[in-house]
Protein: MFS transporter
Organism: Jatrophihabitans cynanchi
Amino acid sequence: MNRLTLDRVEPTPAEGVGERSSRLAPTLAIVAAGTFLALVTYTGPLGNLPTVARALAAGANGQTWILSSTSVALAAVLLTAGALADDHGRRRVFVAGNALIAAGSLACALATSTAPFILGRLVEGVGSAGIVASSLGLVAALARTPADRAMISGVWGASVGGGIAAGPVITGFLDELHLWRGFYALLALGTVALALVAQRVAAESVAPTPRPVDLPGAGALGLALVLALVALTEGRDGLTPWVATAGGGALAAAALFVVVERRRRAPMLELHLFRDRQFTGATVAALGTGIGVIGVMSFSCNFFITELGLSSLGAALLLLAWSGASTGAALLARCLPPALQGPRQLTLGLAGVAVGELAMVGAVPGPVWHLVPGLAVAGVASGVLNAGLGRQAVATVPPERASVGSGANNTARYLGSSIGVTLVVIVATRTGAGSRPGFAGWNHALILSACAALVTAVVVAALTRRENSSSRNPRGTRITATPRT
């Protein structure tokens, strides 16, 4: 490919720069709202798991799946959702994602036992995948200048941080009012409203030459990810024959996916993308974000409640020192000098998270506020990291495959989060007091997560050390380290 190809933006394929730019702001607002709601959906149960577990009579295994079901569905279908968005309409997939979250949330609100609730969370995860995968592609198709692209990455990263921050706070507040089901009713209403607005306001876009759906590839990848995530989730209680079987099946399905994609004329994921150090570095950074950031962050609320004696709302507000700082830092990340953007931004963010996590080691037992400086440092670094991941996700793929780039990057992130949560739970509980983490378990979990973030930072730096903040796609076209259209 000797030149960049413009995505087709409907209904006026030949619209001018001014008109396309005028449609960027409302589309970005809708994308930010959708990403925010998807992350609220993902993190909401962190704030009131004990209450939900009591209401549904969920045992230890049921509680594990209440927390993990959405991430399983998210990771399993993200890449497929990205391919569908690029080839069949990003707005269409975005609207469908909101509709699915509404349906899953309604099922959760009405559930009276654990199984229907988990089923609803799975549907929410599929819907969230549609939103997350299509969102960056929707706005990347309208961006025309470096300033546009910097704004997009900052707003998208802030919406991720904002959603992470708001989810536990909302559920914690409703928990105080004994209205935990109200969270899911609000989600259903919010996503239905957003779907209606998006259908009317957001600009539709598709790749200039849409391709057929890669059903064999989607099936093999979905099976591999589901089995891997099931093995990780069930493996938190130890290695059993079922866990080993699921893990072996995941490896076999992953191998099948590689074989299928190498033979397809129009694969869902072009494997030659991994020859590009920028793409591989961004994918590794996303995986490390899941392991070293999301893993311990997902565990934090439970630790604050069970070991520090905080209420659901109090734990969520303490975690806000991390997630709130992340939101602000993502918005300001566009002010970073060019020399610190691109892969260096990812390395800087990962290293900063590690510093913040290590700063919390040994802070408790003691006043709760001793955790705040470490949480804030990790939050600022997370915001820089989120903004950089959003930028690199679409900068390292051909522009007509922007949603696939987002899907691949976020698949790595949520697969990493499952790995991270599993490792944190195992380390924390086995070095803590029985099935509870204790302060020693918490400290070991922090050290593990910090080491994972630091190792990832080193790997990303090594992969991209010969590159500057620009990126070369596998076909040899130089593109900037920001979304191109």
